Amino acid sequence: MPFSIEPTDIAIFLVSSAACIYCFVLSKRLKALQNTRDGLGATITALSNSISQMSATTQDTRVRVESMATRLAHLISEAEKTCKKLEETIASVDTAKAAATDEVQTAQMDLYVMMRTVLDQSKERIAEMTNLMRQMRTLSDDAATSTLATTGAPARSRTV
Q1: The pTM is what?
Q2: What backbone torsions phi and psi does residue 4 show, to the nearest 5 degrees?
Q3: Model pLDDT for residues 76-100, shown as the tens digit of each residue
Q4: Alpha helix ranges (H) inside the chain
Q5: In terms of Cα–Cα distance, which of 21, 20, 42, 46 is closest to 33?
Q6: CA–CA–CA angle 128, 131, 135 (5° rounding)
Q7: CB distance 160 to 141 below 8 Å
Q8: Which residues, 6+ apart, have CB-to-CB distance to 42 below 8 Å?
């Protein structure tokens, strides 16, 4: 039996050779990717370490944020209480101010009425005193005239 090579055998041989070369190249590339020093393995290891560090940092951040949120809620609560106290104090001051204003106005009115009464009484007293002085002058003048008529000497008259 003679050995004969057919064109399909050559094609199969060439395709098989190309497949072997392709498998060899893929094997080299896969080894390079699996290398933990320079390849994808090193990258995966670095990413894994970064993820664990980020996870720890995230956990620390969460704890701090929760602490700060609790403190902030406490401060907000105190601020609200202080605001309520301030509002009550302002309302109290406004009420006291209104009451004081009313009292001052009432006192001013009472003082005005009292001063008016005193002034009116003073005017009356002054009028009475003026009338009395006129009467005294008239009496004095009359006495001086009668003394002059009886004695004949001039009497001194006082002018007030």
Answers
A1: 0.42
A2: -120, 140
A3: 999 999 999 999 999 999 999 999 9
A4: 7-34, 40-151
A5: 42
A6: 135
A7: no
A8: 35, 36
